[in-house]
Specification:
alpha+beta, Formiminotransferase-cyclodeaminase, Chain B, domain 1, Alpha-Beta Plaits, Four Helix Bundle (Hemerythrin (Met), subunit A), 3 domains, seven-stranded mixed sheet, four-stranded antiparallel sheet, about 15% strand
Length: about 500
């Protein structure tokens, strides 16, 4: 299997429901895993990381792009981060035996499709660039949506690589390419003076004589009353994270300020963080093979990660037992529902009679298989939704008068109710399937049918309890939730 990562960036960082609809398109594609979703209200941007084999991954990215083109209008978009499209950039990153040439081929095929089916013109950039200057994304994006819109028909340098020289009226234009792993790394300064951040960015970025493989800009993050040096490390082996941080610190000291904290946006290679640990801990003779998780992985024990649905039963149970906010009852309810649906599939398989397949049982098994897959996705989604609420609360607390922060919090809180409601809805659907086929279940597997039903009843009840807690907070804060309450009450009825 040849594995690729795609990291599409969308020009939407404030409407969680809109971002969820975009990401949902990727979750529909078998063989593709959504690894991470990062929203930033100040930059008004979301970064999604997903992985899979080439064809499936391309299909998932196209579905997300189609939804973004449908729902994002750049004519009404303002944020700190420069942008030129509703889908601003789509890089493909090869892993393992996959090659950069194959990643370029994915980029070119996707570019042709989005022009043909979405009327979205494309610049090919980085390793997929057809013009030398397009190897640099900053050059490709220069002028942003408005500047490109006004010059694309008359300036040969602005002509797209794929498509006609005209931007999509609401979705603009997109850069699609192939590149190695990139680390998006931000440093927050102990000042709100964006001029200082811009001077530091100028000093550390490669094109102005700073660090190689570093791109940097200075931004004002109004809701935090801080200036930010935002960096892309395009080759962390040539310029590691700790070296970029130390360069920012040195330049900041010239202006009497310091680095308050830093953050990584999206995913980061493990070795990049280990490089930083070795540097700061002065581990000059450290052997990474001595890492506990790597030793365990060599014995077939899965290392800890954020993907609960992919963990072993032992690991998932241990995470549930830990004194941590996630995973919690919502994730456990979704997992119970997935087990119930899976056991139901087994019951249906054994209820078929050899040589006389029952079409109704076949259809029911297919329905339960879909429910199982969606509930497994909600195991992780429930935890993500809760963590999003926690992050939004912190942001709202840091910027009490910021409307965008309040809106992001309200959207996150509603999402935290919608996710377990979807779990309850799916469990209820599976229960209806099992009830309908009960007369056809062989007596020898009746206990399995009973167990499946019990798991699904518990999943529905637990998920609805989670919904109720979030409804209380929505109601207490005067946020609309009558539609959620009505569905919660309808799904509670069978348990009363």
């Amino acid at each position: 299997m040849k594995l690729f990562e795609a990291v599409p960036n969308f020009s939407e960082g404030r409407d969680a429901a809109k971002v969820d609809r975009i990401v949902a398109e990727a979750r529909k594609v078998a063989g593709v895993e959504v690894l991470d979703v990062e929203m930033d209200a100040s930059h008004h941007r979301s970064v999604v990381s997903l992985a899979g084999e080439g064809a499936a991954l391309s299909e998932a990215v196209f579905g997300m792009m189609r939804e973004a083109v449908r729902s994002i209008d750049l004519n009404h978009h303002k944020g700190e981060h420069p942008r030129m499209g509703a889908v601003d950039v789509v890089p493909f990153v090869p892993f393992g035996s996959a090659t950069m040439e194959e990643a370029v081929a994915l980029a070119e095929a996707l570019a042709a499709r989005v022009w043909k089916e979405l009327a979205l013109p494309v610049y090919l950039y980085a390793s997929a660039a057809r013009r030398p200057e397009h190897a640099d994304l900053a050059v490709v994006r220069r002028g942003e949506f408005e500047g490109i819109r006004d010059t694309i028909a008359t300036d040969p340098a602005r002509r797209p690589d794929v498509g006609e020289p005209r931007v999509h009226p609401t979705a603009g234009i997109v850069a699609i390419g192939a590149r190695p792993v990139l680390i998006a790394y931000n440093a927050y300064l102990t000042t709100a003076d964006v001029a200082v951040a811009k001077k530091i960015a100028h000093a550390v970025r490669g094109r102005d004589g700073g660090l190689v493989e570093v791109k940097a800009k200075g931004f004002e993050i109004a809701e935090r009353a801080r200036a930010q040096v935002s960096m892309n490390l395009t080759d962390y082996r040539r310029t590691p994270v700790h070296r970029a941080l130390e360069a920012v610190r040195r330049e900041a000291s010239r202006y009497g300020v310091a680095v308050e904290e830093s953050e990584i946006v999206g995913l980061v290679p493990e070795d990049a963080l280990l490089d930083a640990a070795e540097f700061y801990l002065q581990l000059n003779r450290f052997d990474r093979a001595t890492l506990l998780e790597r030793k365990l992985a060599g014995r077939g024990v899965a290392p800890s990660s954020g993907a609960y649905a992919d963990a072993s039963l032992t690991e998932f149970a241990a995470r549930l037992a830990a004194r941590t906010p996630t995973p919690g009852g919502g994730s456990a309810a979704a997992a119970a529902g997935a087990f119930g649906a899976a056991l139901g599939e087994m019951v249906l398989a054994y209820s078929q009679r050899a040589g006389a397949e029952d079409a109704a049982l076949t259809d029911a098994a297919g329905d339960l298989g879909k429910v199982r897959g969606e509930l497994l996705g909600l195991v992780d989604e429930d935890s993500r939704a809760f963590e999003a609420v926690r992050a939004a609360r912190r942001r709202r607390k840091d910027a009490p008068g910021d409307a965008a922060a309040s809106a992001a919090w309200a959207a996150a809180l509603r999402r935290a109710a919608e996710v377990p409601l979807e779990s309850a809805r799916l469990a209820h659907r599976a229960l209806a399937v099992l009830s309908a086929i009960a007369p056809k279940v062989k007596p020898t597997i009746a206990s399995d049918h009973t167990t499946a039903v019990g798991l699904l009843v518990a999943a529905r009840a637990g998920a609805l309890a989670n919904v109720s807690i979030n409804l209380e907070e929505l109601t207490a804060n005067g946020l609309p939730c009558d539609d959620l309450r009505a569905e919660r009450d309808a799904l509670l009825a069978p348990d009363r």
